[in-house]
Design a protein that fits this description.
heterodimer, A: 201 residues, extended, B: 138 residues, mainly beta, 4-stranded antiparallel β-sheet, 3-stranded antiparallel β-sheet
């Protein structure tokens, strides 16, 4: 074979060899997380977290609790929010949205140096306050929480034939620390159905 | 002939089985006095505009200074439809105020069902809003 024929033959061979790779390559594109709605039976999707948070936040902002705060902003600490589902979930997916909304409203701020069981969300801020107190010899004034946020996420699955109804219920309580009373409570549910294919593969 | 009638009945039941409309009962003279506001609409999807009716847009303030809006939406079809909507909040300077909850939300409406949709701004800086509607194709 002449040398001038080798190049096109090599090109052709490479093209044939790489064709399956291009056919199976994944396509990746960026999407707006606030727009894309994908749901499945085993996870709570970002849109579902948003939906639950939106309903809970609207409920809280619409209640009289925030209007009755004498000297805003009040301070809130995050207490125990129990995950009673079968999934490993990050509770912050829900609480962060509520915290951001309350922060934006200017009515309630969240403390990051005081947490459940003495654990702080921001250990450096806590240590810095302690260090400043040690160096200055003056007691630092850390604001204690006026409210605490607690709750539970529950999962229920009901099967009927090939269809399963999956419901995630989000229950939250805002407790006034002084009185120990839950001044606001809300419950929101997200439900979806999952259908098994009639064919087993 | 009997077969034809039976087939027609089966076809009709198949067509109308997906239709479920909603009847409502309410007080003849409502006691509520909502603060209705006038709106301006930009329609790019004529089919959607004829599919869902948005009326009685009202506003109030909650928690002292947070803008809350409420509107009536009605599915004009005889069968259920899923719609998506999103509310953007605008500040005094005309800029959008980002909110942790301003994503698209889904509403499921049965045939001819009317419901209220409301949204609350998370920032006291919000003075205006834009409501967007679309069909849920997902």
């Amino acid at each position: 074979m002449k040398t001038r024929h080798i190049v096109p033959v090599l090109f052709g061979a490479c093209a044939i060899a790489l064709a399956p790779l291009t056919a199976t390559a994944n396509t990746v594109k960026k999407v707006d997380p606030k727009q894309k709605v994908l749901v499945n039976a085993t996870q709570i999707s970002p849109s579902e977290w948003s939906e639950a948070a939106e309903k809970l936040i609207s409920n809280l902002l619409g209640s009289d609790v925030l209007a009755s705060i004498q000297q805003p902003p009040a301070v809130m600490a995050i207490s125990r929010i129990r995950n009673d589902t079968t999934m490993q979930i990050d509770i912050d997916s829900l609480t962060k949205k509520i915290r951001v909304a309350l922060n934006q409203s200017g009515k309630i701020l969240t403390t990051t140096t005081l947490g459940l069981g003495g654990k702080s969300e921001d250990p450096l801020a806590k240590e810095s306050a302690e260090y400043a107190q040690f160096m200055s010899g003056q007691k630092q004034e850390t604001r204690m929480p006026d409210f605490t946020l607690s709750g539970k996420i529950i999962e229920s699955r009901i099967k009927q034939g090939r269809e399963t109804l999956i419901t995630y219920t989000f229950q939250l309580s805002l407790t006034d620390v002084k009185s120990g009373l839950a001044v606001w409570e809300a419950e929101e549910a997200i439900a979806k159905t999952s259908k098994k294919s009639a064919v087993g593969w | 002939m009997k077969k034809l009638v039976l087939l027609s009945a089966l076809a009709a039941s198949a067509i109308f089985s997906g239709c479920s409309t909603v009847n409502t009962i309410e007080r003849e003279t409502p006691q509520s006095r909502p603060n209705y506001i006038r709106d301006r609409r930009l329609v790019f999807d004529g089919w959607l505009a004829e599919s869902i009716a948005v009326t009685d847009l009202a506003q109030t303030h909650v928690s002292g200074n947070l803008l809350k809006i409420d509107m009536k939406v009605r599915n004009l079809h005889r069968h259920y439809k899923d719609y998506r909507y999103r509310v953007e909040w605008i500040g005094e300077d005309g800029m959008v105020i980002p909110s942790p909850i301003d994503g698209w939300k889904t509403i499921h409406l049965e045939g001819r069902e009317e419901t209220h949709v409301s949204a609350t701004a998370t920032s006291p800086k919000a003075v205006d809003f834009i409501i967007k509607f679309m069909l849920d194709h997902e």
